[in-house]
Design goal:
- 2 copies of one chain form a homodimer.
- Chain A contains 12 helices and 16 strands.
- Chain A has 411 residues and is α/β, with parallel strands linked by helices.
- Chain A folds into 2 domains: 279 residues, Aminopeptidase (3-Layer(aba) Sandwich), CATH 3.40.630; 109 residues, Alpha-Beta Plaits (2-Layer Sandwich).
- In chain A, a hairpin with a 2-residue loop joins strand 1 and strand 2.
- Chain A is globular.
Chain lengths: 411, 411
């Protein structure tokens, strides 16, 4: 068993990432919604690369690619995702897949290491059809009924139709084999500016925050925008705007130090310029790694809604539609990532929670899991201008491959 | 020339209105977007009714129906519209068309009256493709380029495609013949609760308010909803909500006694639950019959936008996209409607401005114009529950026919 560090190939990693960027390119980023032509071509590209890493694999019945090794010894699963948000960045997802592929290329070919890295691209991490459908399916948490119900949030197309159109209807969904893997490791861009602003190279993820999502609905009275006196109105849109501002006023006193909250979507019904909205709806999200803070904020939301309803003229309803417990990352994996950072990044690492959700939180329900972050320029994410310097990409790959090696040799 | 009152047939008026309600029925209202099958069948229904009123006419190249008379003497034009807002009321539009048709049936057949009522159904008063495209076309204010640019606000379909699909591409657009008409008279439901709450039967419209419309845009920075700290955010959606609330706070001190304002539509970009909106946009409308009040409010909007932009973190832009001067109704027409109300409604009429826009404001640019309102139950409008009692419908028809007669015999 070797104790020598193995080195990722910077040329190979950058070439692969740029090859994936060229599929579905949008400005300097990409546009690869789940099951789009660009997404499917990216998955095929990956399956064709697997043999170079001593792996075999195909696209499964939910759009996951999982490359498996026949090498003896411990197996470490590693990966991320290849689809993107609409008109978004080139590294969000592909970085983790290519690091995993590179780790497999370096480690699986090494006869002195007993064990192998297996590579996964999880489908729909970006939630076009749901949330984490690919990795949730792999850990056994997606039923056929869940798939029946899933629809593309942009087009409304059903997931069944989408699977049929890309030719995956008849394939089985691969699920985890208990005990096969010693754990799961994922790399990702930070999507924030902590590493960059602190001059650091690696984020060692301690936990992935839980995401709680709410549908907050406002019911007033639809009426004519010209003939209804201001005093007689029950404007659901105005009630919604006031609620957003009240959240902004009251949350800071009740939240935790790392809580974030976002109103990502607003719809007024019927949404015509000459009609007072009779109904309005907002999608509201809270993230924290501290469930107690979430409990306080959810109670506050309900109290605020009650007060608004009691005061009139509109009725407010708060409905929780997603409930995500925080996921702890394995502490031994955190130590191996730190040790790898000592070798390849002058120890410029920091332990930090992840404010974004990642497939690792799903894998963490069935095996030890770890994550590492590389810096994001300006902290920009989910936008086509998202970027990371080549130097940071390469350094991250070296740390990742070394962390994989260390995890395998410890087992 | 007769000086005897002529009486509308209550059975005929109610039967016609119910026949139109049956075309495109939705609950107790109708769903007849412009150029929908239900709208087109309603127009055909009207053209088939014209001969009974001594009129001939067809659907023209923009979807207007104009029934003309060959009778000698003065001509009064009367009408309204047959399409509806989406899932809206059965009387908004059809009431005025059927009153006009009934006036033509009663008056045009009377050999003792020199003159005739001509009937119009103006296309797209409800603004699916623009605003008042039909009546504006008739008064000569719509260019071919305007039609090229028009799109259905719900489906995005171009007006050219819609005209082609309903077979109107090759028809000419009929325009007003200067001097042909002594004026234009239109009846409509009030769409407010003044008449009902005051126990009155007829509203004599003095003016139609101007409608000013604005696109207010907010520019922040699109980012990840999990990884971006609250303090670092430039949330365009939150800036929009704050702006709505600020309007609600500051407008009452600057507006006139009858000013109304409405935010009818809000869009966050990209509108995904896990992305901080980088851009947001609201459609904002102000209505008043007093241009000075509008000037004050528009200046206030710009001042507020300047303050928000200066304070940061988002940039606000206010763009006026529609500018509608108030239209005065002819004073002699107002007197004839009041006189007719003395005969048929025990004088239970009141002079009032119209807070809603109507085709009469377009006709008023080329001829004397008048309008009368009948009560709306609960003031409800642009919703399928919109309604008026049969008694009020019939009384309104009698007043309308008598007002038409009086206007014609004065000429």
């Amino acid at each position: 068993m070797s104790n020598t560090s193995l080195i990722a190939s910077s040329e190979r990693v950058l070439a692969d990432l740029n090859a994936l960027r060229a599929i579905g390119a949008y400005k300097t980023g990409v546009h690869k919604p789940t099951f789009s032509d660009a997404h499917m071509r990216s998955l095929v590209w990956l399956t064709e690369k697997l043999p170079d890493a001593g792996l075999t694999g195909a696209i499964d019945g939910i759009g996951n690619v999982i490359g498996v090794s026949s090498k003896s010894g411990a197996k470490l699963l590693a990966g991320s995702h290849l689809e993107s948000q609409n008109h978004a960045g080139w590294l969000d997802g592909p970085l983790g897949v290519i690091y995993a592929l590179e780790a497999a290329r370096v480690i699986n070919a090494d006869p002195f290491i007993s064990g192998a890295v297996e590579v996964a691209a999880w489908c729909d991490e970006e939630g076009h059809f749901g949330h984490f459908l690919g990795s949730r399916s792999y850990v056994g948490l997606v039923s056929d009924a869940d798939i029946d119900a899933a629809r593309d949030r942009t087009s409304g197309k059903s997931m069944r139709d989408a699977l049929r159109d890309v030719g995956l209807s008849d394939r089985v969904r691969i699920v985890t084999q208990p005990g096969r893997h010693v754990g799961y490791l994922e790399a990702h861009i930070e999507q924030g500016d902590l590493l960059e602003s602190s001059g650091l190279a690696v984020g060692v993820v301690t936990s992935i925050v839980g995401i709680w999502q709410y549908r907050i609905s406002f019911e007033g009275e639809q009426n004519h925008a010209g003939t209804t006196r201001m005093a007689a109105r029950k404007d659901a849109g105005l009630a919604l705007a006031k609620f957003c501002v009240a959240i902004d006023t009251h949350f800071p006193a009740a939240c935790g130090p790392r809580t974030v909250w976002t109103t990502g979507r607003i719809a007024l019904d019927p949404g015509a310029p000459s009609i007072i909205p009779g109904r309005a709806e907002m999608l509201f999200q809270i993230r924290d790694d501290d469930s107690a803070a979430i409990d306080r904020l959810e109670a506050l939301l309900h109290a605020m809604a009650g007060e608004v309803t009691a005061a009139g003229p509109c009725r407010v309803t708060v409905e929780r539609i997603r409930n995500g417990a925080p996921a702890r990352m394995d502490s031994a994996f955190q130590e191996e990532i730190e040790a790898a950072s000592q070798v390849f990044a002058d120890g410029k690492s920091i332990r930090m929670p992840s404010g974004a959700g990642h497939d690792a939180q799903m894998l963490a329900t069935v095996m030890p899991a770890g994550m590492l972050f590389v810096p994001s320029i300006g902290g920009i994410s989910h936008h086509w201008t998202e970027n990371t310097t080549d130097a940071d990409i390469v350094r991250g790959a070296q740390v990742f491959v070394e962390a994989c090696r260390r995890i395998l040799v410890q087992k």
